[in-house]
Hints:
Elements: H1 3-20, E1 30-34, E2 43-46, E3 55-56, H2 69-82, H3 90-94, H4 97-109, E4 114-118, H5 121-132, E5 137-142, H6 147-156, E6 160-164, H7 169-178, E7 185-191, H8 203-213, E8 221-226, H9 241-245, E9 252-256, E10 266-270, H10 272-281, H11 283-286, H12 293-306, H13 309-331, E11 335-336, E12 343-347, H14 351-363, E13 366-367, E14 369-371, E15 382-386, H15 393-409
Parallel strand pairs: 3-13, 5-6, 5-7, 7-8, 8-9
Antiparallel strand pairs: 1-2, 4-10, 9-10, 11-12, 12-15, 14-15
Amino acid sequence: xxxxxxxxxxxxxxxxxxxxxxxxxxxxxxxxxxxxxxxxxxxxxxxxxxxxxxxxxxxxxxxxxxxxxxxxxxxxxxxxxxxxxxxxxxxxxxxxxxxxxxxxxxxxxxxxxxxxxxxxxxxxxxxxxxxxxxxxxxxxxxxxxxxxxxxxxxxxxxxxxxxxxxxxxxxxxxxxxxxxxxxxxxxxxxxxxxxxxxxxxxxxxxxxxxxxxxxxxxxxxxxxxxxxxxxxxxxxxxxxxxxxxxxxxxxxxxxxxxxxxxxxxxxxxxxxxxxxxxxxxxxxxxxxxxxxxxxxxxxxxxxxxxxxxxxxxxxxxxxxxxxxxxxxxxxxxxxxxxxxxxxxxxxxxxxxxxxxxxxxxxxxxxxxxxxxxxxxxxxxxxxxxxxxxxxxxxxxxxxxxxxxxxxxxxx
Length: 411
């Protein structure tokens, strides 16, 4: 069969990934969830592990919304009303009332004119950058931006692509200034929260740089932020990095419904002119089914909870747990990157030691993500913990105790 030749090439590629240490391998399968009980938060069951319970500290569900009764009920009710799926793309017959209502609520939440839903945040970034990047566009991107931004820029083929040093605002400004006269439009694109480290972009400074040089380019300087890890988990009211930095002038915010809001899908908020243009030109929107009406309804319920007194209580609890965990790690002598975001990177700075500690955590019923070279630069190897509002103080203390025991075993 002709495919045998291709399979040999693909097998060699997979072997190469294994040698480099970047092969994802077999996926861990969750077979069940045990609800929070007593002093313990939810516990998870994993295929092949029998009835062993796991504390999940590597999920993006920062607010615990996916397990909230109100969110589940909202999805169930909408599924009974509208069916299991949309059955078509938006411009044919796939637009349902919950889609429109959710877009209005997202726009209001972010204080923007309108919003636009995609099937995921990844497809949002991939879908909007290409229509916004012309042959006369200069794109300037943070060096640690997410893979979706990197691939979207690569596929869009801007006239000039510049990469500035991570969070280096002087380098960013120099790259904007040095490109005056070389293109009509500049797009500055950055993550809000950088998922590997939990640090954040200085959106207030970035927006000011854009304003400063806007008149120097025929079509202006545009700012785009992917704040998928920020919205719902960062800022006083959970409005993300823009709120935390008091930024004024960010043109487009991309975020997800699948992390802090606990459901599925992605979206952007912007001016109505930008959104109207993208509805006509973004291929990932035009040619892909939207999220289901029931998912949209569940996301609205999550947003409603977040934007309430209950949401403020959840955020307060999340911050308290995050600081408790960070403080405990520092007292044990571990190195961390401290921030107010619930991503807590434990810096190991050694590939073998990172793998060994991840294995020990798993053996003791804790799921955390090890990040080794070349996923992160050599010397930046880490274990990424992610705190969730459905964790309890007992859960955090349990994890700290396991990490303490590991230290004692390796003295």
